[in-house]
């Protein structure tokens, strides 16, 4: 299962390690790259790289538990178009984005696992703390699987939802 997802994990790393736009603002003096956890679907490791103050790339690798379960990797391009609140302690932006996911679906029985590749439309809110290099997020994503390595084509639509936190350095 891990060997089949390795190319997607490498692609996530290449996208997350891309060059920064000049003048990218550091997150509370911690830097533009954050690493942390996400709990939900998937549950695992979360990373985010700010390209500038309005745009970022995020990625996660973990176990998906809602709908189709299994090992999931996803990458999203995010926009932060609306600031819901601005305070001395934190910013509260709304974000939206598009991306893709790869899921190694585990059916839980003796049948072979399926590989699913799909698109994600994500929306969320972010508590971006101003005094410490930490953010906390809550997000939901609609997933449409285009490639199903299965004969029954069950579950083309899915939902990912999660919350998490990242430390920036």
Can you describe what's shown?
By secondary structure, this protein is mainly beta. The protein has one helix spanning 2-16, and strands at residues 33-41, 43-50, 55-64, 70-86, 90-105, 114-129, 134-148, 157-168. The model is unreliable at 5-26 (pLDDT under 50). The protein is 9% helix and 61% strand. The protein has one domain (2-168): Beta Barrel (Porin). It has one helix and eight strands; from the N terminus they run H-E-E-E-E-E-E-E-E. The radius of gyration is 16 Å and the shape is elongated. The chain starts with a helix and ends with a strand. Strands 1-2-3-4-5-6-7-8 form an eight-stranded antiparallel beta barrel.
Give a nutshell description of this structure.
With 169 residues, the chain is mostly beta strands.
Task: Spell out the key features of this protein.
169 residues, Porin, eight-stranded antiparallel barrel
Give the domain tally: 1
Number of helices, counting only DSSP H or I runs of 4 residues or more = 1
Q: How many beta strands in the DSSP annotation?
A: 8
Euclidean distance between termini CA atoms = 31 Å
Instruction: Please bin the fraction of helical residues.
Output: under 10%
Shape: elongated
Mean pLDDT: 82
Strand proportion, as a percent range, falls in over 45%
CATH architectural grouping: Beta Barrel
In which order are the strands of the major sheet placed?
Answer: 1-2-3-4-5-6-7-8
CATH topology type: Porin
Order of helices and strands: HEEEEEEEE
């Amino acid at each position: 299962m891990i060997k089949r997802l390795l190319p997607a994990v490498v692609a996530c790393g290449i996208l997350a390690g891309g060059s920064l736009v000049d003048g990218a603002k550091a997150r509370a003096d911690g830097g533009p790259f954050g690493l942390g956890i996400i709990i939900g679907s998937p549950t695992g490791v979360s990373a985010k790289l700010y390209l500038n103050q309005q745009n970022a790339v995020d990625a996660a690798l973990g176990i998906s538990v809602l709908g189709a379960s299994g090992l999931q990797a996803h990458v999203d391009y995010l926009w932060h178009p609306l600031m819901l609140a601005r305070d001395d302690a934190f910013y509260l932006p709304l974000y939206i984005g598009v991306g893709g996911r790869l899921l190694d679906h585990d059916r839980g029985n003796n049948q072979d696992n399926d590989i699913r590749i799909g698109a994600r439309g994500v929306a969320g809110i972010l508590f971006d703390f101003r005094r410490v290099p930490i953010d906390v997020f809550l997000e939901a994503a609609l997933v449409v699987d285009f490639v199903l390595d299965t004969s029954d084509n069950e579950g083309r639509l899915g939902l990912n939802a999660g919350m998490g936190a990242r430390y920036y350095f």
